Amino acid sequence: xxxxxxxxxxxxxxxxxxxxxxxxxxxxxxxxxxxxxxxxxxxxxxxxxxxxxxxxxxxxxxxxxxxxxxxxxxxxxxxxxxxxxxxxxxxxxxxxxxxxxxxxxxxxxxxxxxxxxxxxxxxxxxxxxxxxxxxxxxxxxxxxxxxxxxxxxxxxxxxxxxxxxxxxxxxxxxxxxxxxxxxxxxxxxxxxxxxxxxxxxxxxxxxxxxxxxxxxxxxxxxxxxxxxxxxxxxxxxxxxxxxxxxxxxxxxxxxxxxxxxxxxxxxxxxxxxxxxxxxxxxxxxxxxxxxxxxxxxxxxxxxxxxxxxxxxxxxxxxxxxxxxxxxxxxxxxxxxxxxxxxxxxxxxxxxxxxxxxxxxxxxxxxxxxxxxxxxxxx
Length: 378
Prior knowledge:
This protein is α+β, with helices and mostly antiparallel strands. Helices cover 44% and strands 10% of the residues.
């Protein structure tokens, strides 16, 4: 059986994983020194794994040792562990318990279950089909929860319905399932998929601050349902992974954390959309005056990251601004009789002179010449 380790990284923090030398198989001895990495994963999730051991009448001692987690740390509510440690204890526990669900459900999900789900989805033409298959096939493994993929307008939602009381492992289960599905979706299309929002149908836990790391974007607790929301355009992306890539992923302890995917394949479209959308209180035809800083904040990245990722996609922020301005100016010149000064303002220019200079550079004509030429076209 090809081992599936997709779940192992679902609760890791979003920092890069430890160097390959520290990525040990479950049978290996842990290194003497703890890998240097920020600790951001709540100890509460380790307690959940320990509880799964206790319910099976088994000891978590070996798994804790492999992850270099001191038993006394379990008593510290404020304690955090690193991504590497969470990956290690999850990997060990899934093998020892032979349960990739780590005790969440009324029956075990034997080693390889999530790998089987991934194989059933990898041949899909688009992410939408792949996630729909994932949701449907997940229901064949357990009926304790159900996954639903829906779209409303421009927003896609992946939600969980609970069919029974998940008890003390509820939070660990719901967070893990969403992280796993989101991470796998990013991997399948080889793109970061930013979240618009995440909501959870339970009260904010004492470690609620960790959710800013686990789920980038606004997080709501005590919500009517548990779900994540993202731009529906990502559903139309084609899958960029094949069976060979899937085998490699399943054979290695690869945490499926979102920031492994620096590339956002819809970044150019998202920046273009933000540049063209009026801000609250602005006229519908007016272009917002976004800076790199304000755009980066809306996209939940740093300005430096924004510029770098646009460059990777063969674009620049100034180039996209010019493109949006040109499109707006051409539309207004062609479809309206507004004075050139008003067109300049609507296209985001401070004065008519700079607009005329820019427009001539784009088209080889002044705005007035362009309008007259368009008027002659039957």
